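Students often ask why inverse folding is considered easier than folding. One informal answer: many sequences map to the same fold, so there is more than one right answer. In these notes we will look at a single instance of the problem. The structure comes first.
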C-alpha cells in the first residue's frame, strides 16, 4: 500500500487531533517528526531546503557530501548505457567527483530488476539492489507532494512542489531522465533523457 492511500491520525495526550494525516511526515522525517502535529510538520518544512539529500534521504547521505550526485531512472537500457558511460567520460574530463545512482521506476517490476542486474554486471554505477529501496524513494517523493498539498501549498506558490512534480512526471514515461546536484547544495539540474544526454555530449561548448 502506498502512503497516498493510507492515513495516520495524530492525537495529543489530551485526546485532541493535532494532525488529520501524519503518514507523510512519518515517511519523510521519521522520528524527527515527533509529536507528529501539523505545527511540527510545517516547522520541519521551514528548515528543509530542496537538496538531493532531502529528496533521497539516507540513500544519498551514504555517499560523500562533497561529491556530485546523479539520480536517474527509466527503463530504456540503451539510453542508460549511453548516459552512464557519457557521464563518466565528462566527469573524468572535468575532474568532477561524480556518483551515479539508478532509482528505477515508482512501480519496479521485472524490467527494473533486469536493468539493475545489467548495471551491476557491467559496473555502470550504483544501484538499489533491493526493490523495496526503489519503492521507498518514490514513495518519499509522493509523501513530500502530499505533505505540502495538505498544508495548502501548490505548484504555483511552492518551489519544492514544482520540483517534485517534475520528477513525478519523469516517472510517467519509460524514457530515461536524470538530475545532478552537488551534495549539500540547493543547485540542481534535471532533464529528460535525450536533453541531458545532448548536454553532456556538448559539454565542451
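Output (designed amino acids):
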Amino acid at each position: 500500500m502506498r502512503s497516498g492511500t493510507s492515513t495516520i491520525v495524530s492525537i495529543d495526550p489530551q485526546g485532541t487531533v493535532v494532525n488529520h494525516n501524519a503518514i507523510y511526515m512519518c515517511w519523510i522525517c521519521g522520528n524527527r517528526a515527533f509529536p507528529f502535529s501539523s505545527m511540527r510538520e510545517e516547522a520541519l518544512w521551514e528548515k528543509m531546503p530542496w537538496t538531493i539529500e532531502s529528496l533521497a534521504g539516507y540513500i544519498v547521505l551514504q555517499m560523500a557530501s562533497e561529491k556530485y550526485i546523479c539520480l536517474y531512472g527509466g527503463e530504456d537500457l540503451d539510453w542508460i548505457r549511453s548516459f552512464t558511460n557519457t557521464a563518466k567520460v565528462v566527469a573524468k574530463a572535468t575532474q568532477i567527483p561524480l556518483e551515479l545512482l539508478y532509482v528505477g521506476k515508482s512501480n519496479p517490476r521485472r524490467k527494473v530488476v533486469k536493468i539493475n542486474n545489467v548495471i551491476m554486471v557491467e559496473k555502470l554505477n550504483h544501484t538499489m539492489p533491493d526493490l523495496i529501496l526503489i519503492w521507498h524513494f518514490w514513495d518519499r517523493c509522493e509523501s513530500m507532494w502530499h505533505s505540502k498539498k495538505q498544508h495548502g501549498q501548490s505548484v504555483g506558490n511552492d518551489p519544492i512542489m514544482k520540483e517534485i512534480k517534475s520528477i513525478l512526471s519523469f516517472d510517467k514515461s519509460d524514457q530515461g531522465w536524470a538530475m545532478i546536484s552537488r551534495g549539500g547544495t540547493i543547485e540542481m539540474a534535471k532533464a529528460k533523457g535525450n536533453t541531458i544526454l545532448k548536454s553532456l555530449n556538448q559539454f565542451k561548448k
